[in-house]
Design a protein that fits this description.
This protein has two domains: about 45 residues; about 250 residues, Cysteine proteinases (Cathepsin B, Chain A). The chain has eight helices and eleven strands. The strands form three sheets. Strands 1, 2, 6, 7, 8, 9 and 10 form a seven-stranded mixed sheet that branches. A two-stranded antiparallel ribbon has the order 3-4. A two-stranded antiparallel sheet has the order 5-11. The chain starts with a helix and ends with a strand.
């Protein structure tokens, strides 16, 4: 019904001469461009579905405001001590009570903070057995001028973007190794001055592990034995309009290069359907996007670069 309703609205636009979906010409042109992409996807009949959503009238350039991962430094990858562990065919940390509700970053390029903080939340909940919501805004405001491990680059730029590992680098040296809670430092989706307070959290960051690039077997083993992973992806137009199904793009459809990554997300599980393995991806675009805030991404061929920069925090 949603599809039919929006198509009818589009047809009415032509008869009235005034856009009904959006009044601005740029919004209307973006909507028309996205509409054609959705219709093309229906014709090809892939294993995933695109549909009209809250991002349908947003251009690709404007959609960058809803992402924010800025690749600047390729981390030295650590050996993964979970390799060769036997894992099940499917696993979902949501069923274990250590994944909080999906959040919404809004029009602030803070995905890097949501990705890193979300993985940290899960580790703390796993350690303390207590539900907790940490502050992304604390990281947006305070993670500034953090040097990369080789001292060649600095991060981050708040709503203008950043990298996930910088959150952990910052916490290792500041705030008594603790992020504030969401209640202590609420999210505003705008850049502010750093105003951290003594955290109420009962667990501190000890460090983080970066996994070997491209090794999805090691990622699955780490996810199963340790917990959710913070990763970067290329969130293209298909991500913008994703509705359901397993997104299984070719490299031409979704560039897997580390330099094409522009969005930070969290892997909370994995599974298989119809012979196709997939990751369960927790996004930060609200529960009204995708599969209640989640996307299933094909596993095994570095789809959208998901295996380029996987990391996870360690807490004590």
């Amino acid at each position: 019904m949603k599809f039919i309703y929006l198509i009818l609205n589009t047809l009415l636009t032509f008869s009235s001469g005034t856009p009904i979906i959006r009044r601005k010409r740029d919004d209307y042109e973006a909507f028309n461009f996205n509409k054609n992409h959705i219709l093309s996807n229906i014709e090809t009949g892939p294993r995933w579905k695109l549909d009209f959503n809250k991002f349908s009238s947003i251009s690709s350039d404007d959609f960058n405001k809803f992402k924010g991962y800025r690749f600047r430094h390729d981390l030295v990858r650590n050996n993964n001590n979970t390799i060769n562990k036997i894992i099940p065919t499917s696993w979902d940390w949501r069923d274990k009570g250590i994944v909080g509700p999906v959040k919404d970053q809004g029009q602030c390029g803070s995905c890097w903070a949501f990705s890193a903080v979300g993985a940290l939340e899960s580790q703390i909940m796993k350690k303390t057995k207590q539900s907790i919501s940490l502050s992304e805004q604390n990281m947006v405001d305070c993670v500034k001028n953090v040097l990369s491990p080789d001292n060649t680059t600095e991060c981050c730029d708040g709503c203008e973007g950043g990298e996930m590992y910088s959150v952990y680098q910052y916490l290792q040296n500041n705030q008594n190794k603790k992020d504030d809670t969401e209640k202590q430092y609420p999210y505003t989706a705008v850049d502010q001055n750093c105003n951290a307070v003594p955290s109420n959290v009962n667990a501190a960051l000890k460090g983080y592990v970066s996994l070997q690039k491209g090794d999805e077997k090691a990622m699955a083993q780490a996810l199963y034995t340790v917990g959710p992973l913070s990763v970067g992806v290329n969130a293209n137009q298909d991500w913008q309009l994703y509705s359901s199904g397993i997104y299984d793009p070719s490299d031409d459809q979704c560039d897997p290069s580390i330099y094409a990554q522009d969005h930070g997300v969290i892997l909370v599980g994995f599974g298989s359907e119809g012979g196709l393995d997939y990751w369960i991806v927790r996004n930060s675009w609200g529960e009204d996007w995708g599969e209640n805030g989640y996307l299933r991404l094909a596993r095994g061929h570095n789809a959208c670069g998901v295996a380029n920069s996987a990391i996870y925090p360690i807490v004590s």
